[in-house]
Amino acid sequence: MILRKVAMVAITAAAVALPAVPAAASESGISGWNGKCYTNWTTTTQANVWCDGTGPERYGASIVCTKGTSTRQLDYANGPWFGDRRGITMTCPSGYTRSQQWGWPAG
User: Fold this and answer.
1) Cis ω for the linkage preceding 93 (within 30 of 0)
2) How many domains does the chain have?
3) Could you tell me the pTM of the whole model?
4) Quick one: which of 51, 73, 55, 76 has its CA closest to 64?
């Protein structure tokens, strides 16, 4: 399955306020669909997120990566159907480390 990166946002740490897509912390519900999102696994530079529920609606996922005072958020849309536990694997750019991740309805 090929996922399409829909945004890569570079911002300074001081400007980090809210993500560009609906944020959902791991294991917290998002209104508008019948499930929750979970983190399958993480490393210092990667994360895999899946969202519970039933298809055919799809979910996306986001990862925030940091390098010094630089922060990047990568958003992956058009992921698998809700309920597909294989999830979305996201990787930080070279030199960045993972700081958080979450899943969201891909509309």
Assistant:
1) no
2) 1
3) 0.70
4) 73
Output the pLDDT for position 29.
Answer: 46
Query: Which residue range forms the structural domain that includes residue 76?
Result: 4-105
Is residue 47 within 8 Å of 96, Cβ to Cβ?
A: no
At 39, give phi and psi (nearest 5°): -95, 120
For the segment 48-66, what is each residue's pLDDT rounded down to a tens digit? 999 998 878 899 999 999 9
**Predicted pLDDT at 47:** 98
